[in-house]
Amino acid sequence: MASEVVTTILIFQAIVYILVYPRLVGVDVSKARVYDAAMTALALIIVWVRFGSAGGDYRFIFFDTNWFVFAFLVYEIFAVVAWMFYFNFKGDPAAFRALYVLAPKA
Known about the structure:
Layout: H1 2-24, H2 29-51, E1 58-60, E2 63-65, H3 67-89, H4 93-99
Antiparallel strand pairs: 1-2
Helix pairs in contact: 1-2, 1-3, 2-3
C-alpha cells in the first residue's frame, strides 16, 4: 500500500509541476510558495480520501508511521527536488541560487 501512496503523490506532483505551476506561478517564488502550500494540502486530502480509512502502518526508511506522516514526508522530499529543478530550469538560475545562497561568493 505504501507504493500506491508514493505513486499517487508522484502523479499529483507531475501534474502540478508540468501543468499548474507554469500557467499560474511562472517564475514568481513568493507566489509559488503559496501555491505549494495549497498543493500540499490538496495532495494530503487526496491521499486521505484514498488511503485514510485503510489503516495499517507505513514504513518510512527507519520507522513505522501512519498514512499522514508517511504521505507528508514523501511529498516534501519529492517537492524539494521538483522545486529545485523547476526554478533552476524555468526561471533565472543565477537569481534562484542567490535567493537560496547557493551561488559562490564572488
